[in-house]
């Protein structure tokens, strides 16, 4: 999904959701071919996820092609 306007997406801090629609956090930055996701909650966590893991973007939320449990493999 390299055709997305990553500057606007990170500026707006768009919500990121896993393939099962569970919340993963907000996109806060772009780094090379990756996006940085900040998960809010009791513990703040950051994930560096390849853009290739983006399944779709509906204008409001970014949907990943991985499950919520797989997100931990991209922990930063």
The strand order across the widest sheet is: 4-3-2-1-6-5
Quaternary class: single chain
What is the CATH superfamily classification?
A: Photosynthetic Reaction Center, subunit H, domain 2
Number of strands: 6
Taken from the alpha-carbon principal axes, the silhouette is: globular
Order of helices and strands: HEEEEEE
> What number is the mean pLDDT?
92
The amount of beta strand, in percent, is 35-45%
Q: How many helices in DSSP terms?
A: 1
Main structural class: mainly beta
Task: Describe the model.
- With 76 residues, the chain is mostly beta strands.
- The chain has one domain: Photosynthetic Reaction Center, subunit H, domain 2 (Photosynthetic Reaction Center, Chain H, domain 2).
- It is 8% helix and 42% strand.
- The chain has one helix spanning 6-11; strands spanning 15-17, 23-31, 34-39, 45-50, 54-57, 61-64.
- It has a 6-stranded mixed β-sheet with strand order 4-3-2-1-6-5.
- Strand 3 and strand 4 (45-50) form a beta hairpin.
- It is globular, with a radius of gyration of 11 Å.
- 18% of the residues are buried.
- The model has no long low-confidence stretch (mean pLDDT 92).
Task: Please name the defining characteristics of this protein.
76 residues; single chain; Photosynthetic Reaction Center, Chain H, domain 2; 6-stranded mixed beta sheet
């Amino acid at each position: 999904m390299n055709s997305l306007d990553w500057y606007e997406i990170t500026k707006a801090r768009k919500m990121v959701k896993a393939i099962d629609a569970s919340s993963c956090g907000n996109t806060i930055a772009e780094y090379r071919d990756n996006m940085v996701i900040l998960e809010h909650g009791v513990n703040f966590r950051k994930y560096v996820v390849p853009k290739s893991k983006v399944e779709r973007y509906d204008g409001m939320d970014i949907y990943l092609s991985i499950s919520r449990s797989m997100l931990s493999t991209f922990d930063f």
